[in-house]
């Protein structure tokens, strides 16, 4: 897969593998994410999505394979590779006993953001959080907390934004708001987004490309709007169910 020049690639993953004893969670996957692209990482529970995201974040050590972010190898130049990466997920809330402004300041200091006060003000405005600046994050609603998580993830102006189910547990109106913000983020700069979601409607609305993972392997890759038809399915949801239930059958029909 690794097509395109390094200049257009924000993320390049090659033969990435993670095993736990005899169990293989991620089984030699390769893929790229290009500049300004939003790529959906899809797959049934246990497919290996979170394991992949955690390896991309440097939280988990791969068993083998390589990850390059903006051309920098994560294994050998970890700090540089991760300096323009960030992350948001519902299962990883910000410290609830700190206020919104305190959280942004703490993370901004950790990332070494220059002109931090001005950056915090800009993000509070952009994510409609000004009225919550002195509110403890723990008492905010799910949608408000997601906006704070996104603001925190934007602090270091990431080139690669990793999102693990960012709209899970949000009401439809709030989810649309969050999706719109993320699309605007990818469209306006030199950044890319890798996004996991179980919401196929959302994936069709947002992602330029999807990767279907099953049993730790990339089974299918393509445009979420045309991929179902290419595989004789009526919708992305139908294709997802086929991948989840019959990954081997699908692999066989893919063989030349
Ligand atoms: N620390 C671990 N030790 C052993 N097995 C693990 C560990 N972490 C994950 N696994 C296994 O690796 C596989 C992939 O898990 P992972 O969490 O990456 O899946 P996922 O695609 O993110 O699933 P979900 O959609 O449910 O979040 C699963 O079978 C899981 O049980």
From TrEMBL:
Q: Which residues form a coiled coil?
A: none
| Positions of the ABC transporter domain | 11-240
UniProt keyword Cell division, yes or no: no
Pfam family of the protein (one): ABC_tran
| Gene3D superfamilies associated with the record | P-loop containing nucleotide triphosphate hydrolases
Which UniProt keywords are present, listed alphabetically?
Answer: ATP-binding, Nodulation, Nucleotide-binding, Transport
The record's section on PROSITE patterns has:
ABC_TRANSPORTER_1 (PS00211), ABC_TRANSPORTER_2 (PS50893)
> One GO molecular function term?
ATP binding
Identify the InterPro entries for this entry: AAA+_ATPase, ABC_transporter-like_ATP-bd, ABC_transporter-like_CS, ABC_transporter_ATP-binding, P-loop_NTPase
Judging by the UniProt lineage, the source's domain of life is Bacteria
Give the transmembrane ranges: none
What does the sequence similarity comment in the record state about its family? Answer: Belongs to the ABC transporter superfamily.
The name on file for this protein is: ABC transporter ATP-binding protein
Its taxonomic path starts at:
Bacteria, Pseudomonadati, Myxococcota, Myxococcia, Myxococcales
